[in-house]
Amino acid sequence: MPSNTLYVTKRGSFSFVLGLVASALFRRFEALRLDKKTPPSALFIPNRKSGDGKPTKVRRLRASDASKGFYELLSQLTEVGKGDFGRRFREITNGCERVYVIESEDGSRIVASGTLVLERKFTRNCGTCGHIEDVVVDEGERGRDLGRVIVEALTRAAEACGCYKVILDCNESNVGFYERCGFKRKEVQMAKYFI
């Protein structure tokens, strides 16, 4: 019998599977215990162009947002494949990404979205760096300050997660917008695409 082969009896297989499940649950709860800084589920950001002066609610993505035009909104930013929304939603919910959205006033559709990705590092005293990704505002809603609102919400969420900085990559045409949001041009982006 080779020494690197695992043989499990019927009784042992149950114990083995139970051990795997317990180990996975322990790692998940231990990570939650150690990571006391968590992003808020919703933020209220002042909107300078709101007629009534009320702040805009920015909340975390929900599974039900697939039926509120979430994919259609993202397609205004880049190519989008339908894929398996439920599977990806579960992966994002359990991972290092935080997707925030703004709903239309009647709550029927998603009109703005952005993603915060948390990069846990060994440098910077084992710090966390936030990356802002996939910021998009519906074409019919642009000019209402929602882009700034979503970027500010992502920035505040990064701060709430204990990030020492938040960074983003953008097209040259969007540099002015992000500078108005408080970002500064820094370094150079490099990319290598596989698809």
TrEMBL record:
Its EC number is 2.3.1.4. Pathway: Nucleotide-sugar biosynthesis; UDP-N-acetyl-alpha-D-glucosamine biosynthesis; N-acetyl-alpha-D-glucosamine 1-phosphate from alpha-D-glucosamine 6-phosphate (route I): step 1/2. Pfam families: Acetyltransf_1 (PF00583). It catalyses: D-glucosamine 6-phosphate + acetyl-CoA = N-acetyl-D-glucosamine 6-phosphate + CoA + H(+). One of its GO terms (molecular function) is glucosamine 6-phosphate N-acetyltransferase activity. One of its GO terms (biological process) is UDP-N-acetylglucosamine biosynthetic process. Keywords: Acyltransferase, Transferase. Residues 56-195 form the N-acetyltransferase domain. PANTHER family: GLUCOSAMINE 6-PHOSPHATE N-ACETYLTRANSFERASE (PTHR13355:SF11). Homodimer. Belongs to the acetyltransferase family. GNA1 subfamily. This is Glucosamine 6-phosphate N-acetyltransferase. It comes from Ostreococcus tauri.
